[in-house]
Amino acid sequence: MNELIEELKVKIIDSLNLIDVSPADMDVNAQLVGGDLGLDSIDVLELVMMLEKDYGVIIDTKELGIEVFASIAALANHVFHHRTETND
Amino acid sequence: MGIVSPLGIGVEETLTSIKQARCCLKPLQMFSTPQAPLAVGEVDLTDSSGGMPRTHLLAMKAATEAMGQAAGPPDAVIIGVTTGGMTLTEELLKKKEKDSRCYNLHSTSTVAEIVARRFGCKGPVLALSTACASGLAALKVAAEMLRAGHARRVLAGGADALCRLTYYGFHSLQLVDPTGARPFDRMRRGMTVGEGAAMLMLTAADEPPPGTLAEYLGGGLSCDAYHPAAPHPEGEGALRAMTVALDDAGIRPEEIDYLHLHGTGTADNDQAEARAIEHLFGEKSMPFLSSLKGAHGHALAGAGAMGAVISILAVQYGLMPANVGFSAQDPLLIPVPLGRPQTARVKKVCVHAFGFGGNNAVLAFGEPDGHRDSRPVAASAITRQPYFYVHGRSCLSAAGDIEQTMAQLKEGKSVRGIVPDTDILKPLDNRAVRRMKRLSRMVLSLAFSACRNEAARAAPRAIFFGTGWGSLSETYDFISKLFASGERFTSPTDFIGSVHNAPAGHAAIHFGATGPNVTITGGQGTFEQALYCASLLKQDGPVLLVGADEYHKTLSPLLDVSPSAQAPPGDGGAALYMSSQSSGAICRVNACFAVLADAESACIPAMISSLGGGAGIRERFGLVLAGLPPAEREEAEIQMASFLALTAFTQPVVDYRRLLGDFASTSAVAAVLAVYMVETGQIPAAFCGNDFVGLEGKGILILGFGRHVTALEVSPW
Q1: Of A38, B358, B367, B546, which has fewest CB within 10 angstroms of its CB?
Q2: Model confidence over A28-71: pLDDT tens digits?
Q3: Can B223 be counted among the known catalytic residues?
Q4: Does B496 touch chain A (CB under 8 A)?
Q5: pLDDT confidence of B454, banded at 50, 70, 90?
Q6: pTM of this prediction?
């Protein structure tokens, strides 16, 4: 799970171009959207696309999105339990 | 007028579809998709030939119908368009086509140009790209051109074709209902991407000429300045556009019989629009209303113009369309659309178009009964003054900002090349621009620098942005990610950033600029056209005018013929902070002339005349900066020779592209440097050598030659 968390941190930084943020700075339990990182609805859509592309995980309702993106820990937990074969 | 949409080809077929309340949405057929095709509004185009990209084809069909009975060419052509040649460009990029000649109809401005040339238009030709509001914005600009007396007949409208960019783009934002839009319905789940075109011939006259279908009453443009992709939740920007439109028309809300909704069917758009309508009309004065996007989809730039045509049909035939796709009222939305077509006398109508980046446009039309223009004379007088006073300026070149650029030019060196990233980022907060790529960053950087001293006093209210090529980085990244994944994945951020008006939208959000927000593309005449548009849409408050283009290492060599073997890659831009206030101004600017060149160069005498004749030019200007694009060199040199012969101008004439670079909006840099030169009286050695005696109190004239012939004056104040 820790490996997945670290992997997700890097992917979040890359897909959202968070150039001044390092994985070590990211609090896994902090609010992901609307928190210190300054993420908004467009960023969420970008992450949704990343999750489907890299993990085969689909987020297609607002409610699921709120649950999954509550924090990095919540995200990792969801991905861990729902990932399918990744496609290249 | 002319219209081509999923409802049918031409007015008659459209009317039939409206009478039958037909839903013309069906699963995508135009190209194959890895997953089940979503419902779209696709036009039944049996002859997709002529070698033209699809958007151009749609525009031509609608224009041909509109010009049907017309006597003679239009004086101007103004078209709203966002996709340009993208449908074809995508295919070419997928095949990795390297011959740049194949891409010659990619630019949105070519849609307007091709229509203008087909119908022999010798006047201004403008292409507006303000996302989904483009079509109505084009009609509004056309109307202002007529009111200003610059033209008597203008062909205006909007056109957009389906393409992978918009199909997959909107889908990536989770805004699409796969089974078809249900505007204003309780169970609505999203929009339907569509295509279509509509054109109207607007004529200025004291009495309605025979054959008049309706009268243009007024229009309003505004910007939410809220978020790049979501509307203001209370519909504030929409309400502003509606209020301005009715004020402009001199009519009260209760006079509107029918309102043609923007009504895309997304949860947010419909709610925002409903709120705005509720605020303006109140429950007692609610007009009949409906959206047809459940019948024909959302044709983006085509949408507003199609709405105008359909609303005028309502006036003509007393037939208001049903809101196809609507079955149950959403209790949160007070306005309830028509469940079936309604016949009644329709005297006055309103059309809505609300786009990405928060661009809003609302127009009002009425029965052609000679409604008198009731706006107070004083207001009209202000808008007739064409020039602006400049209070702030900035530029970006390979040398850096304006001071660095001038310093290098003073040493006799050129500044052409690629603008360094560090110079773009200097005035910007890295975090705040993390989602923006090159062009948006350039525009924001230029905006901050130009408004720097003035921002504390008054932020710009309106923004006009000229770009020849738009956001190439986002466009390329979106398309390449899409194709790399077999059309399964792409980037929502890149889609939002790829629209031409994205940079101006970012600027609007930063400055809270809620007035008109217009993006123009016009080949080498882009900046002059943007300034001209700004003067037509003049209101109270300061204006930000920006011209910029980015160089993209893959796309630029394919799309822009100029940076070919003859000229090295270059990009850059410039901005002006302007207003109608003269006190404290640096100088005055005016876009005096901007047309598509004709084969015989007959536009040169007209251009000279617009500047006060040869004598006027010799008296007022001490220097001419001439733009001769390498790819249009032959034509340009003939025109310039004609200009010199007719005006007997003996002061220096500088070929500025050799010094500043070759990109569509290079004239923006030339104009802003001219502002600097007029302000300080210093002419850098790179322009005229070290022996030039100076301007001696005169102004500088910036001329564009080639396919677009333009004249922009920078005069002392």
Answers
A1: A38
A2: 999 998 888 889 889 999 999 999 999 999 998 888 998 999 99
A3: no
A4: yes
A5: low
A6: 0.96
**CA B62 – CA B66 distance, rounded (Å):** 6
Q: What is d(CA B397, CA B157) in angstroms, rounded to the nearest whole number?
A: 35
Contact B434 A17 (CB under 8 A): yes
From the list B174, B431, B492, which residue is nearest A38 (CB)? B431
User: Beta strand pairing status for B359-366 and B388-396?
Assistant: unpaired
Beta-bridge partner residues of B590: B713
Candidates B553, B572, B564; CA nearest to B418 is B572
**Beta partners for residue B572, in sequence order:** B549
DSSP B400: B
Q: What is the DSSP letter of A79?
A: H
Per-residue DSSP letters for B483-540? Answer: HHTTSS---HHHHHHHSTTHHHHHHHHHHT--S-EEEEE-GGGHHHHHHHHHHHT--S
Residue B527 CA: distances (Å) to CA of B224, B240, B531, B703: 24, 27, 6, 12
- Which one, of B399, B400, B403, B413, lies nearest residue B687 by Cα? B413
B23, B24, B121, B132: the active-site residue: B132
Q: Which residues contact B350 (CB under 8 A, 6 or more apart)?
A: B242, B245, B246, B256, B258, B259, B260, B287, B311, B362, B363, B364
Which residues make Cβ contacts (< 8 Å) with residue B459, sequence separation at least 6?
A: B451, B511, B512, B513, B542
- Touching A: B residues 413-432, CB under 8 Å: 430-431
Q: What is the pLDDT of residue A88?
A: 45
Hunting for tokens 């897909």 — which residue is that?
A: A15
pLDDT of B564 strictly over 60: no
Least CB–CB distance from B228: residue in A17, A42, A60: A42
Do B145 and B202 contact (CB within 8 A), yes or no?
A: no
Catalytically annotated residue among B106, B262, B552, B708:
B262
Q: Please report the DSSP string for B176-234 in residue order.
A: B-TT---TTBTT---B-BB-EEEEEEEE--SSPPTT---EEEEEEEEE--S-SSS--TT
> B350 catalytic, yes or no?
no
Cα A81 to Cα A55, A74, B588, distances in angstroms: 11, 11, 65
Residue B383 has pLDDT above 60, yes or no: no
Residue B356: is its pLDDT beyond 80? no
Q: Which pLDDT value is given to residue B566? A: 62
Q: What is the mean pLDDT of residues B497-507?
A: 95
CB contacts, 8 Å: B491 with chain A:
46, 49
Question: Of B56, B298, B352, B500, which is the active-site residue?
Answer: B298
Average pLDDT over residues B152-173: 97
Q: How far is CA B349 from CA B246, B252, B339, in A?
A: 11, 12, 18
Distance, CA of B663 to CA of B543 (rounded, Å): 24
